[in-house]
Amino acid sequence: MAFVTRQFVRTVSSASTASASAKKIVIKHVAVIGGGLMGAGIAQVAATTGHTVVLVDQTEDILAKSKKGIEESLRRIAKKKFAENPKAGDEFVGKALSSISTNTDAASVVHSVDLVVEAIVEKLEVKTELFKRLDKFAAESLKYQ
Description:
two-stranded antiparallel sheet; Rossmann fold; NAD(P)-bd_dom_sf; four-stranded parallel sheet; alpha/beta; 18% strand
């Protein structure tokens, strides 16, 4: 997985605008749908690169497990990265964790984010159904053009 350290910048163009007049949108708020290993990893990377993240899954139990896994991973990183300064490592972990919230209702989250990442089961029908449902609630800038 490639780790991105700069703010994500996405170029968005719609059918009503020419590609020459596309606008840039800075991604600050990210929703990650799916709290499994991949979704938790994506949420962790987004949080450590300065984004606020909402991690979404079906149950609070899955989300608690995901958040625990993220914290353990961050602590391992901090132990290596901040070996000479454990206090800075604790701050790194705390800052990243404070950037991640959880929710079990994807529809209530997608209207207020700049980017939605899906990391759910690898079944096309399930993914298609998810996006059909979320498209009803998503901001116009997120909708498939």
